[in-house]
Structure formats: structure tokens, C-alpha cells
Amino acid sequence: MTVTDVRTPRDAPTRIVAVPRTPLSRLRWAVTDTWVVAQRDLVHWVRSPAQVFSGLLFPGMMVLLFGYVFGSAMTVENGGDYREFLMPGLFALVIIMGVGETVTAVADDAGAGVTDRFRSIPMSRVGVVAGRCLADMMNSVMGLCVLVLCGLVVGWRAGGSLLESLAAVALLLLLRISIVWIGIYLGLLVKTPEAAAAVWTPLFPIAMISNAFVSPEQMPGWLRVVAELNPMSATVTATRELFDNPGTGGTSWLSENALLMAVVWPALVTAIFFPLAVHRYRKMSR
Fold it and tell me: Which parts pass through the membrane (predicted)?
């Protein structure tokens, strides 16, 4: 590796950390470290089968709870089966709730000194946070697959074409990527598992004040506005449309342009929180 400049950590002024010189070598460095960190996080999950099992069990419990317990008393505006209406909302719910796991995992690493260890060795600053993102995305794909299987068992079907169904899954994963960056930033910000637990508190209100479980048209006027502005609602409406499930109606501009907003909202969130997460990692006190 060709090296022409150095970094000197503040807590160890005699330590010299080599930095690749060319943009291509920096990119290769970042990609390599991203995969190393992702592998490390995945190994931790493999060694914690109870945690993995409980995480995969959660989607099935959501289908049972909302599809059968609450769903027996729910109706779909303009008609349709409620479980067909519900499943895209549950897909997005599991995506949103994953931010709590990300915050907790990042805060655990910070509290245990793992993050400081990463900072003290020649690792790409982008690669460390990107590795966590990659590992979380792999975990999310597993959870989403389990939830899709649960939906098929209870009678949910994707009525759209294969290409439309793949596009719907892509939109869900796009939302997940943006949520991961929020979780990484908050985990680096709080730095302790105890503080990370507080992040779970606002997750349910954010998830519930959306179109995941009921149409915003059935909500009070002010609450309908909040639900329609929720980025989760755009993804839910777009995936319902692509899956050809009931509940894609709506007269607002946001509802009529859900496919566009399902891309714009995650892109905007990522554009804000990705640089914030990298900046926070670089500026953390050691």
C-alpha cells in the first residue's frame, strides 16, 4: 500500500496510522473494512442463537396479534381483506422497529470500548459505520423473509407482477437503510446501553401514527396530516400499490405520489444521517 500521509490520534501522539493516498486505494480500504466489521457483527449474531430466534419470532407475533386479535374488529376503507391490507404495514413496522436494535448494538460497542478500539487502529472511518449498516441490512432481509412467509401462511398474496413485487421489497429495504443510519448515529450519540433503551419509547407512536393499520382518512384531521407526513406511510402505500393489496386510496398529494415519496423520504434521511454518523464517529472522545 502506498502511503504519503499519517494520522496521529489525540490520546496516543506517538502512534502513526497510515492512510492510503489515492482515491481508489481509500475506496478499497473502506470496502475491505466494511466487510470485516460486517462479518464481526454477523458472527456475534451466530453466537447468540437466542437473540436471533427472538428477533425472527417477533414478525410472527405481529402477524398473530394485529392480523387476528385486532384485525377481527377492523375494516378496510372501500372494502377488501384486512390481512391483505395489513401485511405491507407490518413489513414497514418491522423495518422501523429495527432501529432500536441498531441503537442498542452500537451503544453496547461504545460502552464496552469496542468503538474506541476501532478508532485506535488503522481502520476506515466510513468502513466501520458502513459495516454495521451492512450487517443490519442482512439481518433485516432475514426478518423480512420470515414475515413474508408468515403472511403467505395467513392468506396474504402479492397480486402484482414479479417485477412489481421485487420493487416493493426494494422500497422496504431502502427505508431500512435510512433507518439504520439514524440508529447508528443515535447509538454513537448516547454511547451507553441504558440510554439506548430510551430510544424504544418513541418507536411505537411513530409506527402507529401512520397508514400501517388504518387509513389516514379515518383519523381526525390533524392526526391525518401527521400520518401522511410520516415517511413510513409513503413506503406502506407504495408497497400496497405494487403488491396490489387493498388500501392504496387517498386524495392528498402525498398519497397520490407515494411511489415518488417512498424514494425521496429515505434518500433525504440518508443524506442527513449518513454524514452525521460518520462525523460523530470521527469526533467521539476516546
Answer: 50-70, 90-112, 133-154, 166-188, 195-214, 258-278
**What is the C-alpha separation between 179 and 256, in angstroms, rounded?**
24
d(CA 180, CA 218): 31
Q: How many CB atoms lie within 10 A of CB 222?
A: 8
Is there a domain that residue 43 lies in?
yes
How many domains in the chain? 1
Nearest-5° Cα angle at 150, 147 to 155: 125
For residue 119, report the phi and psi dihedrals to the nearest 5 degrees.
-70, -25
192-213 confidence digits (pLDDT tens): 777 777 777 777 788 888 888 8
In a domain, 27, yes or no: no
Cell numbers 401462511 correspond to: 153
Q: Is residue 1 in a domain?
A: no
pTM: 0.82
19 with 7: CB under 8 angstroms?
A: yes
Asked if the structure places residue 137 within a domain, the reply is yes
Is residue 86 within 8 Å of 92, Cβ to Cβ? no
pLDDT in tens, 124-177: 878 888 888 888 888 888 888 888 888 888 888 888 889 999 999 999 999 999
Question: CB within 8 A of 97, min separation 6: which ones?
Answer: 58, 203, 207
